[in-house]
Amino acid sequence: MSFLSKIVRCMRTIAPLELAETSWDNVGVLVEPPYPSTSFSKVFLTIDLTPQVLEEALSDPKVGTIVSYHPPIFNSMKRLTISDVKQNIVMKAIARGVSIYSPHTACDNCVNGVNDWLASGLGDGETVAIELKENPPAGQEGSGTGRIFTYHQPVPLSNVIERVKALTGLPFVRVATADAHRAHQSGLIKTVAICAGSGSSVLGPVKADLYFSGEMGHHDVLAALAQGTSVILCEHTNTERGYLSAVLKPALEKLLVDERSEKGEKIEVVVSTLDCDPLVIV
């Protein structure tokens, strides 16, 4: 079995591609070089595959597969030129024999995926999918789009904000506070609707005390406030990046523990140190 095949088998065990939003998403093996090196023994994880992150990965000759949460190939390509950033990334990876795999919404929707990781930091409560997946793969019962987290005991909005900061490692988050949640005594949070990344389309139809996402449109936030729902926004990839080290890396390591590279080396999983959200609060 090739190095890439071993990684794909493990990734599809963790986040089956059947769970992805394939009507618009682009998941799975995106780049499969014809001449991979036999010396590859590392998997490189990142949220975004930017030129800087690609150079970080390629600087290690042991990296054979890049797992890029966001697909670097999304729209169709009619040509491959170095002047186009995305095309340049693809060609450099192929030239070095490095493959690229993207799980994206399969990782969002799966059991113990990105949305479940976000829910895990909120405290004591129960989590269910906003929209359950019909006929999910074995072991993925309860998977689906978004999550609704329900506290066993309602808590003040300020408590939820601090938990979100602790989970994501962020010193600041953006908050829109509904009138009902300005007073601790009468405005406790019982239900939290969760969607990693861009949440408007998933969260908009949901009735909950709080929306928790990476980003939402201005008018979507106003609509939430009008119905008495507060909003916590962390910026798009800040709701995704922590999942790589906290969940995906150890899950891959566990599945790869008995696997070896073509040269008999143990397969390592590393996380990008340069990958970061492009927006910062200053």
Folded structure, characterized:
By secondary structure, the chain is of the alpha/beta class. It contains 9 helices and 11 strands. The strands form 2 sheets. A 6-stranded mixed beta sheet has the order 5-6-8-9-10-7, with helices on both faces. The protein has a 5-stranded mixed beta sheet with strand order 1-4-3-2-11, sandwiched between helices. Helix 2 (51-58) links the parallel strand 2 and strand 3 (63-68). Helix 1 packs across helix 9. The longest helix is centred in the last third of the chain and has 16 residues, at 241-256. It starts with a helix and ends in an 11-residue tail after the last strand. The mean pLDDT is 96.
Secondary structure topology:
Elements: H1 3-14, E1 28-31, E2 42-46, H2 51-58, E3 63-68, H3 85-95, E4 99-102, H4 105-109, H5 114-120, E5 125-132, E6 144-155, H6 157-168, E7 174-176, E8 189-198, H7 200-203, E9 210-215, H8 218-226, E10 230-233, H9 241-256, E11 268-271
Parallel strand pairs: 2-3, 2-11, 3-4, 8-9, 9-10
Antiparallel strand pairs: 1-4, 5-6, 6-8, 7-10
Helix pairs in contact: 1-9
